[in-house]
Amino acid sequence: MTMLTHPGSRYKPASYLSGRPEISGAITGGGHIAMLRRFCLSALVVLLIGGGVAGIIALKTMIALSRISY
């Protein structure tokens, strides 16, 4: 409900300080860098988990093939 109420009085216009901030290069640049860093970190985590799973599969395959006598 606070978003719908007018921040100024009845005869005084609102200051719009609580509204949407002005978009400047510093705000958008920092936001994009943080979003890019978060994306790269999540991609790195996914790759590390995939590498770990592939390593476990390779070890199990090596053990299973070493037990087979040709």
Structure notes:
The chain starts with 24 loop residues before the first helix and ends with a helix. The chain is 61% helix and 0% strand. The chain is rod-shaped and about 95 Å long. The mean pLDDT is 78. It contains one helix and no strands. It has one helix spanning 25-67. With 70 residues, the protein is an all-alpha fold.
Name the poorly predicted regions.
none
Estimated structural class: mainly alpha
Morphology call: rod-shaped
What is the end-to-end distance?
A: 76 Å
pLDDT averaged residue by residue: 78
Compressed to H and E, one letter per element, the order equals: H
| Main sheet record | none
Helical fraction: 55-70%
Number of strand elements = 0
Strand content: under 5%
Number of helices: 1
Q: What are its keywords?
A:
mainly alpha; 70 residues
Question: In a nutshell, what does this entry contain?
Answer:
With 70 residues, the protein is mostly helical. 61% of the residues lie in helices and 0% in strands.
